[in-house]
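user: can you give me the structure for this one chain? C-alpha coordinates are fine.
assistant: on it. calling the predictor now.
[tool input]
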Amino acid sequence: FIIGILEDSGYLARAAVICHKPLKLFGLSGKSFIPLLSGHACAIPAIYASRTVASPKRRLLTILAVPLMSCSARLPVYALLISAFIPSTTILGGLVGLQGLAFFALYFLGVVVALLITSALAKTIYKTKNDSPFILEMPSYRWPHWRPLLKRSLVSCRQFITKAGVVIFIVTIIVWIIGYFPNGSGHLDSSWLAALGHVIEPLMKPLGLDWKYGIAILSSFLAREVFVGTLGTLFGIEGAEENISSLVNHIQSSGLELGSGIALLVFYAIALQCVSTLAVLRKEVGST
Protein backbone atom coordinates (compact mmCIF):
# COMPACT_ATOMS: atom_id res chain seq x y z
CA PHE A 1 0.00 0.00 0.00
CA ILE A 2 2.80 2.43 0.93
CA ILE A 3 4.72 1.60 -2.26
CA GLY A 4 1.51 2.21 -4.22
CA ILE A 5 1.16 5.66 -2.64
CA LEU A 6 4.75 6.53 -3.53
CA GLU A 7 4.28 5.30 -7.09
CA ASP A 8 0.95 7.03 -7.73
CA SER A 9 2.20 10.31 -6.27
CA GLY A 10 5.13 10.43 -8.71
CA TYR A 11 7.76 10.20 -5.98
CA LEU A 12 9.25 6.81 -6.91
CA ALA A 13 10.54 8.07 -10.26
CA ARG A 14 12.32 10.95 -8.52
CA ALA A 15 13.73 8.57 -5.91
CA ALA A 16 15.12 6.44 -8.74
CA VAL A 17 16.90 9.50 -10.17
CA ILE A 18 18.31 10.41 -6.75
CA CYS A 19 19.55 6.86 -6.17
CA HIS A 20 21.15 6.41 -9.59
CA LYS A 21 24.63 7.64 -8.65
CA PRO A 22 25.01 5.70 -5.38
CA LEU A 23 23.53 2.52 -6.90
CA LYS A 24 25.84 2.86 -9.90
CA LEU A 25 28.79 2.39 -7.54
CA PHE A 26 27.49 -1.13 -6.88
CA GLY A 27 26.87 -2.02 -10.52
CA LEU A 28 23.16 -1.17 -10.41
CA SER A 29 21.00 1.53 -11.93
CA GLY A 30 18.62 4.12 -10.58
CA LYS A 31 15.84 2.02 -12.10
CA SER A 32 16.97 -0.80 -9.80
CA PHE A 33 15.65 1.18 -6.84
CA ILE A 34 11.99 0.34 -7.49
CA PRO A 35 12.54 -3.45 -7.78
CA LEU A 36 14.74 -3.41 -4.67
CA LEU A 37 12.11 -1.49 -2.72
CA SER A 38 9.34 -3.78 -4.00
CA GLY A 39 11.43 -6.77 -2.96
CA HIS A 40 10.69 -5.93 0.66
CA ALA A 41 7.08 -6.88 -0.07
CA CYS A 42 7.56 -9.87 -2.38
CA ALA A 43 10.49 -10.89 -4.57
CA ILE A 44 8.40 -12.25 -7.46
CA PRO A 45 6.77 -9.01 -8.71
CA ALA A 46 10.01 -7.18 -7.88
CA ILE A 47 11.95 -9.49 -10.22
CA TYR A 48 9.41 -8.81 -12.96
CA ALA A 49 9.74 -5.07 -12.24
CA SER A 50 13.46 -5.29 -13.04
CA ARG A 51 12.51 -5.47 -16.74
CA THR A 52 12.50 -1.66 -16.69
CA VAL A 53 16.31 -1.68 -16.30
CA ALA A 54 17.64 -1.10 -19.83
CA SER A 55 21.15 -2.52 -19.42
CA PRO A 56 21.11 -6.36 -19.55
CA LYS A 57 24.00 -6.63 -17.08
CA ARG A 58 22.54 -4.18 -14.58
CA ARG A 59 19.18 -5.87 -14.93
CA LEU A 60 20.75 -9.25 -14.16
CA LEU A 61 22.49 -7.82 -11.09
CA THR A 62 19.19 -6.29 -9.97
CA ILE A 63 17.45 -9.66 -10.33
CA LEU A 64 20.16 -11.33 -8.25
CA ALA A 65 19.92 -8.65 -5.55
CA VAL A 66 16.12 -8.65 -5.14
CA PRO A 67 15.79 -12.01 -3.28
CA LEU A 68 18.13 -10.71 -0.57
CA MET A 69 15.64 -8.03 0.41
CA SER A 70 13.65 -9.10 3.49
CA CYS A 71 10.23 -9.89 2.04
CA SER A 72 6.98 -10.08 4.00
CA ALA A 73 7.20 -13.90 4.17
CA ARG A 74 10.22 -13.55 6.44
CA LEU A 75 8.34 -11.42 8.97
CA PRO A 76 6.63 -14.31 10.86
CA VAL A 77 10.00 -16.05 11.20
CA TYR A 78 11.72 -12.86 12.35
CA ALA A 79 8.94 -12.13 14.84
CA LEU A 80 9.07 -15.64 16.29
CA LEU A 81 12.84 -15.90 16.65
CA ILE A 82 13.36 -12.33 17.85
CA SER A 83 10.65 -12.80 20.48
CA ALA A 84 12.34 -16.01 21.61
CA PHE A 85 15.95 -14.79 21.77
CA ILE A 86 16.07 -10.99 21.97
CA PRO A 87 14.92 -9.44 25.27
CA SER A 88 12.23 -6.76 25.11
CA THR A 89 14.44 -4.17 26.77
CA THR A 90 15.29 -0.67 25.62
CA ILE A 91 18.52 1.28 25.31
CA LEU A 92 19.44 4.96 24.92
CA GLY A 93 17.06 6.01 27.64
CA GLY A 94 14.16 4.00 26.29
CA LEU A 95 14.35 5.45 22.77
CA VAL A 96 15.38 2.21 21.05
CA GLY A 97 14.10 -1.29 21.74
CA LEU A 98 16.46 -4.23 21.24
CA GLN A 99 13.83 -6.22 19.38
CA GLY A 100 13.13 -3.35 16.99
CA LEU A 101 16.86 -2.88 16.52
CA ALA A 102 17.17 -6.58 15.66
CA PHE A 103 14.44 -6.21 13.02
CA PHE A 104 16.27 -3.24 11.50
CA ALA A 105 19.59 -5.10 11.56
CA LEU A 106 18.11 -8.01 9.59
CA TYR A 107 16.70 -5.70 6.92
CA PHE A 108 19.97 -3.78 6.79
CA LEU A 109 21.96 -7.03 6.55
CA GLY A 110 20.02 -8.14 3.47
CA VAL A 111 20.63 -4.81 1.72
CA VAL A 112 24.35 -4.77 2.58
CA VAL A 113 24.91 -8.36 1.42
CA ALA A 114 23.03 -7.65 -1.82
CA LEU A 115 25.12 -4.55 -2.57
CA LEU A 116 28.38 -6.35 -1.76
CA ILE A 117 27.48 -9.20 -4.11
CA THR A 118 26.43 -6.93 -6.98
CA SER A 119 29.53 -4.80 -6.50
CA ALA A 120 31.80 -7.86 -6.65
CA LEU A 121 30.02 -9.26 -9.72
CA ALA A 122 30.06 -5.87 -11.47
CA LYS A 123 33.84 -5.70 -11.08
CA THR A 124 34.54 -9.29 -12.14
CA ILE A 125 32.08 -11.44 -14.08
CA TYR A 126 29.49 -8.85 -15.16
CA LYS A 127 31.63 -5.77 -15.72
CA THR A 128 29.36 -2.76 -16.06
CA LYS A 129 30.60 0.46 -17.59
CA ASN A 130 28.69 3.36 -19.10
CA ASP A 131 26.79 0.87 -21.24
CA SER A 132 23.60 2.91 -21.55
CA PRO A 133 22.43 6.39 -20.54
CA PHE A 134 20.04 6.75 -17.65
CA ILE A 135 16.75 8.00 -19.07
CA LEU A 136 13.59 8.17 -17.01
CA GLU A 137 10.36 10.03 -17.62
CA MET A 138 9.47 12.25 -14.69
CA PRO A 139 5.74 12.24 -13.94
CA SER A 140 4.19 15.27 -12.30
CA TYR A 141 3.39 15.22 -8.60
CA ARG A 142 -0.22 14.29 -7.94
CA TRP A 143 -2.49 12.94 -5.24
CA PRO A 144 -2.87 9.16 -5.39
CA HIS A 145 -6.12 7.74 -6.71
CA TRP A 146 -7.24 6.14 -3.47
CA ARG A 147 -9.97 3.81 -4.71
CA PRO A 148 -7.89 1.89 -7.30
CA LEU A 149 -4.94 1.96 -4.90
CA LEU A 150 -6.97 0.36 -2.12
CA LYS A 151 -8.42 -2.16 -4.57
CA ARG A 152 -4.94 -3.20 -5.77
CA SER A 153 -3.71 -3.47 -2.19
CA LEU A 154 -6.67 -5.63 -1.13
CA VAL A 155 -6.23 -7.90 -4.15
CA SER A 156 -2.52 -8.30 -3.37
CA CYS A 157 -3.26 -9.04 0.29
CA ARG A 158 -5.92 -11.59 -0.62
CA GLN A 159 -3.60 -13.31 -3.10
CA PHE A 160 -0.79 -13.45 -0.54
CA ILE A 161 -3.03 -14.74 2.26
CA THR A 162 -4.64 -17.33 -0.03
CA LYS A 163 -1.31 -18.54 -1.36
CA ALA A 164 0.39 -18.60 2.04
CA GLY A 165 -2.63 -20.18 3.73
CA VAL A 166 -2.90 -22.99 1.19
CA VAL A 167 0.82 -23.75 1.35
CA ILE A 168 0.88 -23.69 5.16
CA PHE A 169 -2.20 -25.94 5.35
CA ILE A 170 -0.80 -28.50 2.88
CA VAL A 171 2.64 -28.59 4.48
CA THR A 172 1.15 -28.90 7.98
CA ILE A 173 -0.98 -31.86 6.88
CA ILE A 174 2.03 -33.56 5.26
CA VAL A 175 4.17 -32.98 8.35
CA TRP A 176 1.40 -34.37 10.57
CA ILE A 177 0.98 -37.50 8.40
CA ILE A 178 4.67 -38.42 8.25
CA GLY A 179 4.94 -37.53 11.94
CA TYR A 180 2.11 -39.93 12.84
CA PHE A 181 3.07 -42.96 10.76
CA PRO A 182 4.26 -45.72 10.33
CA ASN A 183 3.23 -47.04 13.74
CA GLY A 184 0.20 -44.78 14.15
CA SER A 185 0.94 -44.29 17.83
CA GLY A 186 1.63 -40.58 17.55
CA HIS A 187 5.13 -40.96 19.05
CA LEU A 188 7.16 -38.45 17.05
CA ASP A 189 10.55 -40.01 17.81
CA SER A 190 9.64 -43.26 15.98
CA SER A 191 7.94 -41.66 12.96
CA TRP A 192 9.02 -41.21 9.36
CA LEU A 193 9.44 -37.51 10.11
CA ALA A 194 11.96 -38.24 12.86
CA ALA A 195 13.85 -40.59 10.53
CA LEU A 196 14.11 -37.84 7.91
CA GLY A 197 15.09 -35.33 10.58
CA HIS A 198 17.90 -37.51 11.87
CA VAL A 199 19.27 -37.83 8.31
CA ILE A 200 19.69 -34.06 7.99
CA GLU A 201 20.58 -33.47 11.65
CA PRO A 202 24.38 -33.55 11.02
CA LEU A 203 23.92 -30.44 8.86
CA MET A 204 22.15 -28.69 11.74
CA LYS A 205 24.61 -29.64 14.49
CA PRO A 206 27.22 -26.94 13.67
CA LEU A 207 24.46 -24.36 14.25
CA GLY A 208 23.45 -25.96 17.54
CA LEU A 209 20.09 -27.08 16.14
CA ASP A 210 18.38 -30.45 16.43
CA TRP A 211 16.41 -32.41 13.83
CA LYS A 212 13.13 -30.59 14.53
CA TYR A 213 14.59 -27.29 13.39
CA GLY A 214 16.07 -29.08 10.37
CA ILE A 215 12.61 -30.28 9.34
CA ALA A 216 11.14 -26.80 9.87
CA ILE A 217 13.87 -25.25 7.71
CA LEU A 218 13.43 -27.91 5.03
CA SER A 219 9.67 -27.36 4.86
CA SER A 220 10.14 -23.60 4.59
CA PHE A 221 11.72 -23.98 1.16
CA LEU A 222 8.14 -24.05 -0.15
CA ALA A 223 7.41 -20.77 1.64
CA ARG A 224 9.44 -19.19 4.44
CA GLU A 225 6.45 -18.55 6.68
CA VAL A 226 5.80 -22.32 6.80
CA PHE A 227 8.67 -22.51 9.31
CA VAL A 228 6.37 -21.24 12.08
CA GLY A 229 3.54 -23.71 11.41
CA THR A 230 5.88 -26.67 10.99
CA LEU A 231 7.73 -25.91 14.20
CA GLY A 232 4.41 -25.59 16.00
CA THR A 233 3.33 -29.00 14.68
CA LEU A 234 6.60 -30.58 15.81
CA PHE A 235 6.20 -29.08 19.28
CA GLY A 236 2.59 -30.27 19.40
CA ILE A 237 1.04 -26.79 19.44
CA GLU A 238 -2.31 -26.33 17.70
CA GLY A 239 -2.73 -23.09 15.76
CA ALA A 240 0.93 -22.06 16.13
CA GLU A 241 0.45 -19.08 13.80
CA GLU A 242 -2.06 -17.58 16.25
CA ASN A 243 -0.53 -18.97 19.46
CA ILE A 244 2.92 -17.46 18.99
CA SER A 245 3.54 -16.93 22.72
CA SER A 246 3.19 -20.66 23.41
CA LEU A 247 5.60 -21.49 20.59
CA VAL A 248 8.07 -18.90 21.90
CA ASN A 249 7.94 -20.56 25.33
CA HIS A 250 8.63 -23.98 23.79
CA ILE A 251 11.63 -22.61 21.89
CA GLN A 252 13.02 -20.94 24.99
CA SER A 253 12.61 -24.13 27.04
CA SER A 254 14.16 -26.34 24.34
CA GLY A 255 17.67 -25.31 25.37
CA LEU A 256 18.48 -23.48 22.16
CA GLU A 257 21.30 -20.99 22.74
CA LEU A 258 21.42 -17.35 21.69
CA GLY A 259 24.11 -18.07 19.07
CA SER A 260 21.89 -20.68 17.41
CA GLY A 261 18.97 -18.25 17.34
CA ILE A 262 21.11 -15.54 15.74
CA ALA A 263 22.42 -18.09 13.21
CA LEU A 264 18.82 -18.93 12.28
CA LEU A 265 17.95 -15.25 11.88
CA VAL A 266 20.98 -14.60 9.66
CA PHE A 267 20.16 -17.71 7.60
CA TYR A 268 16.61 -16.52 6.92
CA ALA A 269 17.87 -13.00 6.16
CA ILE A 270 20.19 -14.07 3.34
CA ALA A 271 19.10 -17.56 2.24
CA LEU A 272 17.41 -17.88 -1.16
CA GLN A 273 14.95 -20.63 -0.30
CA CYS A 274 11.59 -19.73 -1.84
CA VAL A 275 10.73 -22.20 -4.61
CA SER A 276 8.44 -19.73 -6.40
CA THR A 277 11.18 -17.08 -6.40
CA LEU A 278 13.71 -19.59 -7.73
CA ALA A 279 11.37 -20.52 -10.58
CA VAL A 280 10.81 -16.88 -11.57
CA LEU A 281 14.52 -16.13 -11.13
CA ARG A 282 15.45 -18.97 -13.48
CA LYS A 283 12.92 -17.81 -16.04
CA GLU A 284 14.01 -14.17 -15.96
CA VAL A 285 17.75 -14.89 -15.92
CA GLY A 286 17.26 -17.15 -18.93
CA SER A 287 15.58 -14.33 -20.82
CA THR A 288 18.27 -11.76 -19.94
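assistant: here you go. The chain is about 65% helix and 0% strand. The first helix runs from residue 2 to 8.
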